[in-house]
Amino acid sequence: MASSESAGAKRNRAGIYVPQSAGCRSFIPTPLPPKNPLLDLGNPELLMRLSSADRAIGRLDAATELLPNPDLFVAMYVRKEAVLSSQIEGTQASLIDLLEYEIDSARAEKSSDVGEVVNYIRVMNHGLERLDELPPSIRLIKEIHEILLQRVRGSEREPGEFRRTQNWIGAPGCSPSDATFVPPPPQEVLRHMGRLEEYIHMEDDVPPLIKIGLIHSQFETVHPFLDGNGRMGRLLITFLLCWKKILSRPLLYISYYFKENRMEYYERLQRVRDYGEWEEWIIFFLKGVRETSVQATDTAKNIQRMREDHRALLSDQTRSSASSVLLLDKLFEHPFVSVKTIAEIIGRSYPAANALVSQLEELGLLHEVTGQKRNRVYIYKPYLDLLNV
Questions:
Q1: Which terminal CB of the chain, N or C, has fewer other CB atoms within 10 Å?
Q2: Contact criterion met (CB below 8 Å) for 235 and 214
Q3: Alpha-carbon distance 92 to 85, whole Å?
Q4: Does 13 map to a domain?
Q5: Which residues belong to any copy of the Fido domain (predicted)?
C-alpha cells in the first residue's frame, strides 16, 4: 500500500489531468519547484551530469574570451541557432539561405522560412538588449513573441498575446480528444504563467542549470501561445543563462541537441507530465548543456587556430596582404560575399577585388556558389565547415 501511494504521489508531482467538455483531458501543472518528494539532488547520475555541465559551460565562457573578436563568433552562432531552432518547427531555410538574404535582401528571395529565421535573430538580439532593463517576465515574453511572429507563418495567431482558445499537441489533423498532449485550458494560462514568473525570480538553493531546465519544461507544458511555443521555450533558455550571468555572451544554443534527439526530447517532457519524472528530464537536459558547450568550445578554439593560419597564409601568398587580411576579418562576421561587397570592404576597384577573389579561390578560402558568370557570390567555406552547416 505504501509503495502504491508513493507511486501515485510521484505520478502527480508535475500536475494532474482534468476532463474538459470537449471530450479531452487537459493538463494542469503543479507550480514549481517539484515536490513530493523534492527534486532528488542525491541522485548520483544527476549530480554527475550537473557537475559535468557546469564545468563545460565554464570552459565555453573562458574559451570565447580568448577570441580576437568574440562578438563576430556570437553573431554567427546566433544565426546558426536561429536556423536550427526554426528547422525543428518545420522550416526548410538553411544558413546559406539566410546569409544570401542578408548580403542582398533586395535581390534575394525572402521565403516565409527565411523570414522566420530573420525574426528569430531579431528576437534574440532584442531580448538580450532588453534584459539590461527588463528581467525575464510575462511582459518580456509577450514582447519578444510579437516580434517572432511578425509577417511570417503564425502572424494571424495573436502574436504577443496568450492564447484565448485551447491548443493541443499531436499528429497533423488530430483533435483534442486524440491528441498526444492537451495543455491547460486558456482561462488557466495567465495564472500558470504568473506562477512561472514568480519561480523565475524566487530565491532558492536550486542550482541555476537545474532551475533553467525546470523552467523550460514548465513553459512547454503551459504552451501559452497559439504558435511559436517551441522557439520561445528555447529562446528562454538562452535569456536565462545570460540573465543569471552563467554566460557572458549568448553562446549556448541547445537546439541542435534537441533536434538530434527530438523523439527523446518530446518523450522526456511528456513523462514529466505523465509520471513525474523530473530527475530523468533534468539529466537529459544537463547532458545537452554539456554536449552543446563542448561543441561550442571546440569550435571557438578551432576558429581561433584557423584564423591565425589563414592570416599567415594570406600574408605570405597574396600580392596585397593588407587587403586580404582586412577581408578575412570581415568574412568572420559575414562569410557570404560578392565581388562588389569585397571592393567596398577593401576600398579598392572592382577589378582589384576580382583579382583578390581569384587568389583566395586558388588558396581554397573562397568558394563560388551561384554557378553564374555575373553577379557571382562566394562563401568562406572553411569557416562554414567548422560551423557544420
A1: N
A2: no
A3: 11
A4: yes
A5: 136-287
What are the strands, taking DSSP E only, across the chain? 15-19, 25-29, 336-338, 366-368, 377-380
* SS3 label, residue 33: coil
For residues 145 and 230, what is the distance between their CA atoms, to the nearest angstrom? 11
Q: Looking at the structure, tell me whether residues 281 and 341 fall in a common domain.
A: no
Same domain (yes/no): 239, 341: no
- Parent domain of 183: 2-298
- Return the C-alpha cell found at 152: 511570417
* Residue found under cell 535573430: 121
Picking from 44-48, 61-65, 139-143, 306-310, which range would have the lowest pLDDT averaged per residue? 61-65
This prediction has a pTM of 0.88
Cell of 359: 587568389
Task: Give yes or no for a contact between 83 and 389, defined as CB atoms under 8 angstroms apart.
Answer: yes
The C-alpha cell at 191 is 495564472
Over its C-alpha atoms, the chain yields an Rg (Å, rounded) of 24
Spatial CA neighbour of 79 closest among 63, 67, 96, 62 = 96
- CA separation for the pair 183, 14 (Å, rounded): 13
235-260 pLDDT, tens digit per residue, is 999 999 999 999 888 888 888 899 89
CA distances from 268 to 228, 239, 298 (A): 20, 22, 28
Place of cell 563568433: 73
CA–CA gap between residue 194 and residue 254 (Å, rounded) = 25
SS3 content of the chain, % helix, strand, coil (to 5): 60, 5, 35
**Cα–Cα distances in angstroms (integers) from residue 344 to residues 273, 300, 318, 349, in the given order:** 56, 28, 19, 8
Q: How many domains does the chain have?
A: 2
Q: Which amino acid, 7? A: A
Interatomic CA distance for residues 48 and 59, integer angstroms: 17
Q: Which three cell numbers stand for residue 332?
A: 568572420
**Residues near 180 by beta carbon (within 8 Å), at least 6 away in sequence:** 168, 169, 170, 171, 174, 270
- Whole-number Å distance between alpha carbons of 52 and 37: 25
